[in-house]
Amino acid sequence: MMDCKKLREVLDAFVDRELSPDAAAQAEAHIAECNRCRQAVEALTKLREAVRAAAGRPEVPAHLFERVQSSLRPPWRGSIAVQAIAATLLLAATLTLFVPSVRGAAASALDYLALKLDDSRPVVLEGKLLCRDCQLEKEYGYHAMCPQTGHHGAIVTSDGRIWNLLEGEKSQELIHNSALLGRRLRVQAQMYRKAGSLAVSDYQLL
Amino acid sequence: MPLAWTSRSKRFEKEALPHLGALHRMARQLVGATGADDLVQETVLRAWKYFETFESETNCRAWLFRILRNAWIARWRKSRLELPLTETESETIEPYYDWEAEFLREEFSAGVKLALLDLPPDYRMAVLLADVEEFTYQEIARIMECPIGTVMSRLNRARRRLLQLIQAQHEEGSAEKTVPLPEQIPRRKL
């Protein structure tokens, strides 16, 4: 049986429902018989309720909820401007893929950009020595004058580009010796993208 | 706009954000209404940062309150260079209290708000965690990072201190009504 002294020791745990079932039953049995201890339990319970009332309701101010949500969002997500740019780029990419006229414009734009970024620089590139005029005749139906004027060597790279060779000491053979046509070669050159031309400083036939 | 951009944020929205109100209520009691917003925001940001380490099957509310307490202590350290609880603590329970005091039979809830503010902050937090948030002693021990014995002694001391403070308010109030003589100016019995 629990006495007053023991009950006062476990008073908080009893009110907080932290006692084991056995101990709680003993405490209840004691409280049923002891007015002073019952008064203590009632006072402590009353204090608990008063603390709860003083703390108020769990409320979140609307501005705080907004603040918290926006601080959790990645910074680039919420911006309408960024979303608009992303949508425009997506549309442009779609048009480029599926509309030929836009594709042409986009290709020109990319060429322009490449030109701006990479106008002239030293390069080493590999390709096949072919006659420029005959190649254009083959691809586009250009009327080549080679039977009258002779072939004009140029380097065709694997991406299909035809690079003109500028007249120079090292390029003479490549431009005018039609016996070399059809050979693969590696050239060291200065590239002039604007003119689609190479100034060859050296070359090796492969 | 809902936070629906990853599954992590969906989980966070579902498990953590519903406790924002309770966190704000505790923050108001700890740092006052003006600092509460910042403390809650700091808590949520910390929780979001470490959300990967939170295990779903454990108690998210208790986890958040623990983060709130750590954020609060970090702020306190920054501003005051000392811990909130300055008293030397012992784990002894003080079972003896005059439960027959007159004022206990009257309505005393009005004085509790003021009395809470006079409690040492960690006592205040222990009482609020137990009485308002209804956490178990085990949960409070985890939140406050202390043994259960310390939780029990803090609750015990905090509640009796609260009652002493309320009683002092009552006595001051009744003394004012009776116009005290200069030599009888009441003092808080603490």
What does this structure look like?
The complex is a heterodimer of chains A (206) and B (190). With 206 residues, chain A is an alpha+beta fold. Chain A has three domains: 4-55; 74-117; 121-205, OB fold (Dihydrolipoamide Acetyltransferase, E2P). Chain A has ten helices and five strands; from the N terminus they run αααααααβααββαββ. Chain A has helices at residues 4-9, 11-15, 21-33, 35-55, 62-72, 80-98, 100-117, 132-140, 146-149, 172-176, and strands at 120-131, 153-156, 162-165, 184-192, 197-205. Chain A has a five-stranded mixed β-barrel. In chain A, α3 packs across α4 and α6 crosses α7 (100-117). The longest helix of chain A is centred in the first third of the chain and has 21 residues, at 35-55. The mean pLDDT of chain A is 86. With 190 residues, chain B is mostly helical. Chain B has two domains: 1-83, Rna Polymerase Sigma Factor, Chain: A, CATH 1.10.1740.10; 85-190, Orthogonal Bundle (Arc Repressor Mutant, subunit A). Chain B is built from seven helices and no strands. Chain B has helices at residues 7-15, 20-49, 60-80, 112-118, 121-132, 137-144, 148-177. Chain B is elongated. Classes of the chains: A alpha+beta (206), B mainly alpha (190). Chain A binds chain B through residues 5, 8-9, 11-13, 16, 18, 36, 39-40, 43-44, 46-61, 63-65, 67-69, 71-74, 77-78, and chain B through 1, 3, 5, 9, 12, 17, 20-22, 24-25, 28-29, 37, 40-41, 44-45, 48, 93, 95-97, 99-100, 104, 108-109, 112-113, 116, 127-128, 130-132, 136-137, 152, 155-156, 159, 162-163.
